[in-house]
Design goal:
By secondary structure, the chain is an alpha+beta fold. The protein is built from five helices and six strands, in the order αβαβββαββαα. Helices cover about 35% and strands about 15% of the residues. The strands form three sheets. Strands 1-2 form a two-stranded parallel sheet. Belongs to the carotenoid/retinoid oxidoreductase family.
Length: about 150
């Protein structure tokens, strides 16, 4: 199994000797949120993460040189506003960026599907693959917003 230590020898020894009130396994956005609330309540907390960076699904990484990809960063929109304000996340560097268009799907044949919040653009993009689906899309869009919102 791949392991990487970021602490110098003396620091690592001190960390091993410390008694923690709580250990959080996984430095994803949920683990970091839990750790922050535990620390705010006065507990000493250690977050253990096997990857070389923390943030879990809410990170953007350069997987191919020159190209950055969102692992699942759109999930940050599920982070409750109360957590953002209580933990003063903007003060600590949180910056939420709206993705528009929000989806790009390349195909092996060179075509692509680009989707976002613009209903007309979405219809046009869908029509590149299926005129029938493009014609039905506005009805499904309307039903989605009537049922789910």
């Amino acid at each position: 199994m791949w392991r990487r230590g970021f602490c110098s020898g003396s620091t690592r020894g001190a960390l091993k000797e410390k008694k923690w009130d709580a250990l959080v396994i996984g430095g994803g956005h949920n683990g970091l949120t839990a750790a922050a609330y535990l620390a705010r309540s006065g507990l000493s907390v250690a977050v253990l993460e096997r990857r070389h960076l923390v943030g879990g699904a809410a990170v953007t990484e350069e997987l191919i040189p020159g190209f950055k990809f969102s692992r699942c960063s759109y999930l940050q929109s599920l982070l409750r506003p109360s957590i953002i304000s209580e933990l003063e996340l903007p003060r600590h560097g949180l910056k939420l960026l709206k993705r528009n268009p929000s989806s790009f799907t390349p195909c092996l044949d060179g075509r692509y599907l680009l989707l976002g919040s613009d209903r007309e653009l979405n219809t046009s993009e869908i029509s590149k693959f299926s005129k029938r689906d493009a014609e039905a899309y506005p009805r499904s869009y309307y039903l989605y917003f009537c049922v789910y919102l």
